[in-house]
Amino acid sequence: MPSSTTIVLFHSAYGLRPAVREAAERLRAAGHEVHVPDLYEGRTAETFEEGMEIRDEIGNDELLRRAVTAAAPLSDRGLVYAGLSLGGSIAQNLALADEKARGLLLLHGTSDIADDVTADELPVQLHVAAPDPFEPDDWLNAWYLRMRRAGADVEVYRYPGAGHIFTDPELPDYDAEAAEAAWPVALAFLDEL
């Protein structure tokens, strides 16, 4: 039986780590078809700094090109774009450029929004630590207003005391309580798409 939603899940700056694969399996267990492109082509980082070095070495333009190449063959299905931290930024850029996008699930990260972008009633859900050094309150408030102005239907869930990538059990940011609170809400969001 075909799954109800096709999701492309993009990894964080740490690369395609076990936690990303576990997140994909969690989504598959809920009945979704999930694709997990490896934008770092097999490389992973042990620290945030190493991840940023890999990202900078590849470059943002090349990461976006790789993401588009991975998503393009599936885009006629009406994809849900999802991502973790850096992957959220990539997912947001792709979703806002895809008129057929069914939804956008962001975990731990957002991206800037061009003034001329439209996202007519695009369902968007963001899960983020509070506070988050990479997603400060002023940024998130501006991001929310710009997404709403673009026409997106946005929900934001904040997790006080959690670390930036609080869903990855192998990182110092991990917060089991926040992760277990976030996943059911994210799965319910996906079920409604």
CATH class term: Alpha Beta
Helix/strand/pairing category: alpha/beta
Strand content: 15-25%
How many beta strands in the DSSP annotation? 6
**Spans where pLDDT lies below 50 across 5 or more residues:** none
Tell me about the largest β-sheet: 6 strands, parallel
The chain-level mean pLDDT equals: 95
Radius of gyration: 15 Å
Number of helical regions: 6
The CATH architecture comes to 3-Layer(aba) Sandwich
Distance between the termini: 17 Å
State the strand order across the main sheet: 2-1-3-4-5-6
- Give the overall silhouette: globular
Order of helices and strands: EHEHHEHEEHEH
CATH superfamily: Alpha/Beta hydrolase fold, catalytic domain
- In total, the number of domains comes to 1
CATH topology: Rossmann fold
Helix content: 25-40%
Description:
With 193 residues, the chain is α/β, with parallel strands linked by helices. The chain has a single domain (6-191), classed as Rossmann fold. It is built from 6 helices and 6 strands, in the order E-H-E-H-H-E-H-E-E-H-E-H. A 6-stranded parallel β-sheet has the order 2-1-3-4-5-6, with helices on both faces. Strand 3, helix 4 and strand 4 (103-107) form a beta-alpha-beta unit. Helix 3 packs across helix 4 (86-97). It is globular. The two termini are 17 Å apart.
Short key terms for the protein model shown above:
6 strands, six-stranded parallel beta sheet, 193 residues, Rossmann fold, alpha/beta
Give the topology.
Layout: E1 6-10, H1 18-29, E2 33-35, H2 48-58, H3 60-71, E3 80-84, H4 86-97, E4 103-107, E5 123-130, H5 137-150, E6 153-160, H6 176-191
Parallel strand pairs: 1-2, 1-3, 3-4, 4-5, 5-6
